[in-house]
């Protein structure tokens, strides 16, 4: 969903057979409880092997329609006795935005225990959860954040965190990666997301890149356990084909195993510099 980050431990997955991407493989061991926020391993990562050479070359941010940078983290701690809020901020990107947001929250005694941040087309957006050891009104938090920005510079939404949201996963099932590749046209997201919703498929994350009329969609989805994978693949291909797109659906383990190009790239770059 991975980009190779120096100093970060890489996770290897057990895959049944890379030659059979249509089959549901034996999964690698997964923790009993999912993290509340996750990092989509494909954000900003180019995956040419998925499209067998059809994927456009790596792009500079100014060259494509949507540029996304995603950072997410979950911090564990005792939150049962704390007052939690969900905070969302939208602002034109600039240096120091996250500092200005987090300093306001911390200044009120808040502990940030979950965060996901991205930049799209020059707009910075972040959603985070924060726990406060003493009561703190939503408007108080919102006002404290806005004080760190110029008038009308940022849009801030704060609401109480509802614990019921973490009781059960939205969909119980296997995690897959869907990729769409072809010429851009209006209605792609509407058609594809409508198709997935009708099948009871939950979209966990979605990444899009544009270049010279070409579009690549990469989505992480959870398929209900009772869903027929082969039938879904057939219907997805039919839906994508009607839009002039090629589609691929792979189990996340196979996708990561067949697109783990980070170490090779680093090796080649090291040889070139040496």
Your description of this structure?
With 274 residues, this protein is α+β, with helices and mostly antiparallel strands. It has two domains: 71-165, ACT domain (Alpha-Beta Plaits); 169-273, ACT domain (Alpha-Beta Plaits). It has seven helices and nine strands. The strands form two sheets. The chain has a five-stranded antiparallel sheet, covered by helices on one side. Helix 2 packs across helix 3 (138-146). The longest helix is centred in the C-terminal third of the chain and has 14 residues, at 229-242. The chain is elongated and about 55 Å long. The relative contact order is 0.19. Residues 1-70 and 261-267 have low confidence and may be disordered.
Condensed summary:
The chain contains 7 helices and 9 strands. By secondary structure, it is an alpha+beta fold. The two termini are 30 Å apart.
Mean of residue pLDDT values: 74
* Widest beta sheet: strand line-up: 1-3-4-2-5
Strand proportion = 25-35%
What's the story with the biggest beta sheet? 5 strands, antiparallel
Give the CA-CA distance, first to last residue: 30 Å
- Counting DSSP E segments of at least 2 residues, the number of strands comes to 9
CATH hierarchy, class of the largest domain: Alpha Beta
Q: Name the shape in a single word.
A: elongated
């Amino acid at each position: 969903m991975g980009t190779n980050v120096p100093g970060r431990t890489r996770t290897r997955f057990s895959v049944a057979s890379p030659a059979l991407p249509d089959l549901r493989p034996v999964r690698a061991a997964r923790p009993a409880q999912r993290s509340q926020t996750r990092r989509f391993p494909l954000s900003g990562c180019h995956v040419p092997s998925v499209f067998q050479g059809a994927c456009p070359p790596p792009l500079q941010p100014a060259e494509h329609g949507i540029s996304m940078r995603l950072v997410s983290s979950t911090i564990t701690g005792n939150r049962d006795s704390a007052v939690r809020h969900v905070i969302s901020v939208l602002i034109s990107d600039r240096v120091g935005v996250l500092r200005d947001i987090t300093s306001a929250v911390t200044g009120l005694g808040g502990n940030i225990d979950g965060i996901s941040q991205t930049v799209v087309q020059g707009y910075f957006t972040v959603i985070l959860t924060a726990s406060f050891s003493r009561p703190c009104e939503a408007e108080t938090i919102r006002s404290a954040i806005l004080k760190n920005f110029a008038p009308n510079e940022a849009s801030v939404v704060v609401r109480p965190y509802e614990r019921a949201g973490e009781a059960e996963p939205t969909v119980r099932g296997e995690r897959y990666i869907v990729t769409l590749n072809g010429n851009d046209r209006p209605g792609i997201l509407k058609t594809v997301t409508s198709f997935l919703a009708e099948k009871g498929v939950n979209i966990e994350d979605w990444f899009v890149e544009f270049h010279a009329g070409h579009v690549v969609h990469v989505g992480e989805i959870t398929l209900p356990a009772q869903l027929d994978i082969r039938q879904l693949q057939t219907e997805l291909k039919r839906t994508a084909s009607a839009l002039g797109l090629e589609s691929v659906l792979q189990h996340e383990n196979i996708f990561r195993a067949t697109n783990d190009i980070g170490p090779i790239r680093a090796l080649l770059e090291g040889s070139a510099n040496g």
